[in-house]
């Protein structure tokens, strides 16, 4: 039988402790009675590394034997439906995938065909694929790979045909491209945006993992397999894992109900993976529902980001982020260096608080939806009962909108933002109601609310989605949503889109649909004109207003007619044709001056306000003050309480005094506005904040930079709380703070703040937006301050180029930026001359 | 074969204490799970992408043990699953070799899964050889064989192996290195012989 194991073990161990040159002799001495043992140990010592390799290779061979399925389902040239197989793209988690192209020569379209093993597909997803397709086709998002078709082939192979993404899965992409944390987070946000988009349509992914996230050759993110797991999931849950065990959420492992929180969990794993190239679990650890221990790559991931991931990876779904947007808030906060909310919390404390918080969230959103639903029910009831009561119906709805509008965003005390309430409402509408027209009218209101709280982008996304899904419901609500969307595109500086929407509306109007009220028609024609006006297409704008004018018949209301003149005035003002502008504005005013009805009085107050602005531009400050005063006194008459309208006019009035360099009066008026609001509203209310902003501007112009700075900082805190860290208002605040720091000669700080602003502006707007050129101008000023004239010139030039391109050379900003370019050129010339 | 949920843990502990009756009792349960999963892998279905023995064993564990099982029973399960895996792979390897030699494989195994395990000839040869060496090792020190089953066939971590064998992780680490070197030397012997 020879040597014992313990003998072998002892000699081998000791030999390892001896210097390698003496090992052989040592072994020979130790095992001198057993030649076999001698030889064995010497061999072992010699081949330690080969032994390791041997086992690795063996394991590889075993794995290969277990997973190899050598038969391809299709061969190149095979035809599946309209498509011809080109080659196998590999075997993914769900089956074999092929690259194919269209068989008829109609289109040059490459697609990916995903095939499933037939005996594994037990539900009727594929049989009913045509029905399901509508569900999948509703995912119309640039970052989600389209599903084109699917079904069962003649040879019983279950397949899905989808957009072919030529690129790399995200993990491989990240290994190839060295990204900064910031860039990685941006990428993560892009992925999350697509997921959020799907969530808003009640579609879950449930299998978020690197191999389902591709970055294509243009650097665009594409998510694969959206909704597939959800659709195929239910019956399969008995037998199989829904997701890869590595990425599965506890509730998937336990076969419990999946939800948005399931995707959040997987996003947490993804975030960890993106940041560190590692899974957030102990090495060698395998995911099971109760035993999975979280181990973060602590050295590779920032602490704050760790707490974000930690919150995603909570065992219990209700302890995770409630939505992708909630997760986003924290990631965005990190991106712009704000302390992350979750990081500050003590976790055990937070856990106990969570239920309470959650309940508040639910009740608030329910409240909102309830009030909207009440409005709808009331209005449809009214509409049915008496058509002549239509005005009342509209009033009811407006009333409900007003409730919301005047609701102070800070009322929610940070538990949830307005945006969160609204996002929740979207989900509620989709899940709670059946009737399409009814849903559409709810959406119409919701979209309006988004717009009214300046969440243009959210309003836009929802409107686009609703319009694409409710194409078959052509009613007034549908057109009203279009109208709102057009207005939003305008606010977001997407003028081409705005124009195309208004064109459709106008052609709708011109076909003579009799259910469109004249008021609606004129309103939209004028909106189209406004869009053209903002783009500087003044002639077109005037032509469009002519169209509205042509519609005016004897049945048109005075207010509509006056509105048309009001728009004429506005365009002329922009054309610096002040006399014409003044003529039209006065005409508008005269038309309704004598009218006592509230509608007319409201319009009149607006026209006086516009007249004031016009006179301000005409540098007739004293007359402007008179107009503003008229507007203010009307507004006071209409509503003895201060409201938003009054605030606007007061701040305009303050602006005139500011122009007159009468800073004392300006600040008195602005303070008065603040006082009025402070009596009714909470300090963080946006009305107050924006007026304070004007005040801060005054301090700035009075060269009281320290004071302005501290004001701006408080405004920043308020704006961030009200609108979230990524809002354009926050960017404005950053720029103002940067300006103060620049003037205080703290240029490094100034630079940091401009950078923060840049982050937001880059994210929210493209280069055509005036904020982009404005920001570049501020960079230029900063560099000029630092006497870095070369950089200053670059930025000033870019700022001017953009403004010239998008705002037009006549725009006053363009002119200002041009002056900067000229000034810096002169400075540089002077410098050269000196040399 | 009906085994109650709670009984599994008990059986696993017994198997790890060397009770072969318990092994015979629990083997079919584990085997059927492992087989089922491997069968599924053949179709590359749902999820698991780079499937290897580790993943199979882990997943089988998840199927068999309910989610509340404690860490100890998990470790015990791996120990038993490692043994089962060794048997399954050996059968598949023998079948492959039998076919290669043109012999009827009837006496070995007809299990569906093993037919579908498609080991290369080289790998089959190595597995058969490994099994012979492990049988030699069994005679010298059966505890070391168990370590191989855990560490290699069930792909357990050092810590998990230590828990099953009730020794320290550093001992596992040290022993595993010696065993690997020894097995390799024996296999080289057999190849040259």
UniProtKB/TrEMBL annotation, chain A:
<feature type="domain" description="Protein kinase">
    <location>
        <begin position="83"/>
        <end position="335"/>
    </location>
</feature>
<keyword id="KW-0802">TPR repeat</keyword>
<keyword id="KW-0547">Nucleotide-binding</keyword>
<dbReference type="InterPro" id="IPR000719">
    <property type="entry name" value="Prot_kinase_dom"/>
</dbReference>
<dbReference type="Pfam" id="PF00069">
    <property type="entry name" value="Pkinase"/>
</dbReference>
<protein>
    <submittedName>
        <fullName>Serine/threonine protein kinase</fullName>
    </submittedName>
</protein>
<dbReference type="InterPro" id="IPR017441">
    <property type="entry name" value="Protein_kinase_ATP_BS"/>
</dbReference>
<keyword id="KW-0808">Transferase</keyword>
<feature type="binding site">
    <location>
        <position position="114"/>
    </location>
    <ligand>
        <name>ATP</name>
    </ligand>
</feature>
<dbReference type="InterPro" id="IPR019734">
    <property type="entry name" value="TPR_rpt"/>
</dbReference>
<dbReference type="InterPro" id="IPR008271">
    <property type="entry name" value="Ser/Thr_kinase_AS"/>
</dbReference>
<dbReference type="InterPro" id="IPR011990">
    <property type="entry name" value="TPR-like_helical_dom_sf"/>
</dbReference>
<dbReference type="GO" id="GO:0005524">
    <property type="term" value="F:ATP binding"/>
</dbReference>
<feature type="repeat" description="TPR">
    <location>
        <begin position="605"/>
        <end position="638"/>
    </location>
</feature>
<feature type="repeat" description="TPR">
    <location>
        <begin position="689"/>
        <end position="722"/>
    </location>
</feature>
<dbReference type="Pfam" id="PF13424">
    <property type="entry name" value="TPR_12"/>
</dbReference>
<feature type="repeat" description="TPR">
    <location>
        <begin position="647"/>
        <end position="680"/>
    </location>
</feature>
<keyword id="KW-0067">ATP-binding</keyword>
<dbReference type="GO" id="GO:0004674">
    <property type="term" value="F:protein serine/threonine kinase activity"/>
</dbReference>
<keyword id="KW-0418">Kinase</keyword>
<dbReference type="InterPro" id="IPR011009">
    <property type="entry name" value="Kinase-like_dom_sf"/>
</dbReference>
<keyword id="KW-0723">Serine/threonine-protein kinase</keyword>
Automatic annotation (TrEMBL), chain B:
<protein>
    <submittedName>
        <fullName>RNA polymerase sigma factor, TIGR02999 family</fullName>
    </submittedName>
</protein>
<dbReference type="Pfam" id="PF07638">
    <property type="entry name" value="Sigma70_ECF"/>
</dbReference>
<keyword id="KW-0804">Transcription</keyword>
<comment type="similarity">
    <text>Belongs to the sigma-70 factor family. ECF subfamily.</text>
</comment>
<dbReference type="InterPro" id="IPR014284">
    <property type="entry name" value="RNA_pol_sigma-70_dom"/>
</dbReference>
<dbReference type="InterPro" id="IPR013325">
    <property type="entry name" value="RNA_pol_sigma_r2"/>
</dbReference>
<dbReference type="InterPro" id="IPR036388">
    <property type="entry name" value="WH-like_DNA-bd_sf"/>
</dbReference>
<dbReference type="GO" id="GO:0006352">
    <property type="term" value="P:DNA-templated transcription initiation"/>
</dbReference>
<dbReference type="InterPro" id="IPR039425">
    <property type="entry name" value="RNA_pol_sigma-70-like"/>
</dbReference>
<dbReference type="InterPro" id="IPR011517">
    <property type="entry name" value="RNA_pol_sigma70_ECF-like"/>
</dbReference>
<keyword id="KW-0805">Transcription regulation</keyword>
<dbReference type="InterPro" id="IPR013324">
    <property type="entry name" value="RNA_pol_sigma_r3/r4-like"/>
</dbReference>
<dbReference type="GO" id="GO:0016987">
    <property type="term" value="F:sigma factor activity"/>
</dbReference>
<feature type="domain" description="RNA polymerase sigma-70 ECF-like HTH">
    <location>
        <begin position="6"/>
        <end position="188"/>
    </location>
</feature>
<keyword id="KW-0731">Sigma factor</keyword>
<dbReference type="InterPro" id="IPR053812">
    <property type="entry name" value="HTH_Sigma70_ECF-like"/>
</dbReference>
